[in-house]
Amino acid sequence: MGFIDQNTIDLGSGNKILTLSLNNPETRNSMTREMGLEFKKIIDGLIEAPEKNRPRVVILTGKNDIFSAGGNFELLKSFSTKDYETNKKLCSNFIIFFYP
User: Fold this and answer.
1) The CATH number of the domain where 33 resides is what?
2) Is position 94 within any domain?
3) Residue 3: pLDDT above 70?
């Protein structure tokens, strides 16, 4: 399977190896909300796939000679406009995604 164009994450696979390449050069591959949702959709798809179709290795990398600048400042600033309970729920959902 060759590259499949995604919005901010490019996929490449072959021989049971999947490469996820962060691809948002305007923000130096920083994690935006859209990228996070796209990443979750990809991971959910891997979890739901039949075991025989799943990769054995997933490589996370960045395009344009940059891995990632980290969290996107616009996303981080948006937390300052939300109340405590909303931010708590958003952070809890984020943690549960990685540590179910």
Assistant:
1) 3.30.300.220
2) no
3) no
The fraction of the chain above a pLDDT of 70, given in percent, is 90
The token duo for 14 is 């072959």
pTM for this one?
0.68
50 near 61, Cβ under 8 Å?
A: no
Cβ-contact 22, 9 below 8 angstroms: yes
Residue with tokens 């996107």: 72
State the residue range of the domain holding 34.
Answer: 9-71
3-state secondary structure of 18: strand
Which segments of 1-100 are extended strands (E)? 9-14, 17-22, 57-62
Say if 38 falls within a structural domain: yes
Number of domains in the chain: 1
Predicted confidence (pLDDT) per residue in 5-37, tens digit: 457 888 887 788 999 999 988 889 998 888 888
Q: Residue 2: its pLDDT value, please? A: 38
User: Closest Cα to residue 27, out of 82, 87, 60, 67?
Assistant: 67
